[in-house]
What we know:
Radius of gyration: 11 Å
Number of helices: 4
Largest sheet: none
Shape: globular
CATH topology: 434 Repressor (Amino-terminal Domain)
CATH class: Mainly Alpha
Distance between the termini: 21 Å
Helix content: 40-55%
Amino acid sequence: MKIRKQTYGNKNLVGKNIERLRKEKGIKQKDFIAQIQVMGCDMNPTSYSKLEGQIRSATDKELYVIAKILGVPIEELFDN
């Protein structure tokens, strides 16, 4: 897995955890984005990368779908 080159932003609380959980499950970013799209969220690679990097806010629908794909309660996305 690639190591993040840029520092995290401060636009959301969940980006780091989403990235960590996705990597723990061995899911490549492009495959994860495809799953998000199949579940009905219009997300492109740049938008997703900004979400993980905490450079943009996440919508409630995005958080719901991401938690479903990762198989975790939505609250776990907010854990420190």
